[in-house]
Specification:
nine-stranded mixed sheet; about 240 residues; alpha/beta
Length: about 240
């Protein structure tokens, strides 16, 4: 293992220790919030430094908003988010690069929540999108990445693969220290599994690398637009 790989693997081990440390808390909502915070704090160290992570909602200048989202990767250099206490923020759609649903245990109900979350993003509209931008590039600019992060899963891998094919906005499902599903294209999903011959947390390390490069690509695409803060301020 190279030094960076060792450090990230060690941090993942600490993350799993934090996950287990709150098992004695009987209030499920509190336990879930703590684990969500542990994941957010970990991922802050493995995404591009210019980006931030919030929980909250995404909005556009017309006033349309999404459902509550656990994990929003935001580029504040495009437009600022309006933050409240406890990491809750309102994020302009222009600044939202990635969303994720965080679950202690992934269930079929979780998948429905992700589907509804994705649907709530679709109606949002960007300010100042140039008509000269090609249609393919426009899709890359407008669509935030989407994934699911979980510590455990009660859903079979076959069911998750079928669900990902039916829900094209979800690019990856990561069950930490177990397996990762990565969408290669509309009809193909590959699985990366925990295995003895691989380094610890190999599957999650692969996920981190793919998400990082997805974010850097989206940052490049978003440079093609000039968001209007005036429209947000003036309504």
């Amino acid at each position: 293992m190279n030094p960076i790989q060792k450090i990230v693997s060690s941090r993942l081990s600490s993350l799993m220790g934090q996950y287990e440390s709150v098992e004695a808390i009987t209030h499920m909502a509190t336990r879930g919030q703590l684990r969500e915070g542990f994941l957010i704090d970990f991922f802050k160290g493995v995404i591009p430094q210019r980006l931030s992570i919030n929980s909250g909602i995404i909005c556009d200048a017309s006033g349309a908003t999404t459902r509550q989202i656990d994990f929003i990767v935001t580029d504040e250099s495009l437009l600022p988010s309006m933050g409240f206490e406890s990491r809750i923020a309102v994020v302009p759609i222009e600044s939202a690069l990635m969303t994720a649903e965080i679950k202690t245990t992934l269930t079929t109900n979780s998948l429905e929540q992700v589907r509804l979350q994705s649907e709530s993003i679709q109606p949002l509209r960007f300010t100042n999108i140039s008509t000269s931008i090609e249609t393919n590039s426009r899709q890359m600019i407008l669509r935030p990445l989407n994934s699911i992060l979980a510590f455990n899963s009660d859903v079979s891998r076959e069911t998750l693969i079928d669900w990902m094919k039916q829900n094209p906005d979800t690019l990856a499902i990561c069950v930490i220290n177990k397996f990762v599903l990565l969408k290669l294209d509309k009809d193909n999903v590959t699985i990366v599994e925990k295995a003895e011959q691989n380094p610890d947390f190999w599957e999650t390390l692969v996920y981190i690398g793919k998400i990082y490069h997805g974010l850097t690509s989206l940052i490049k695409y978003r440079q093609q637009i000039t968001p209007s803060w005036d429209i947000y301020m003036q309504g």
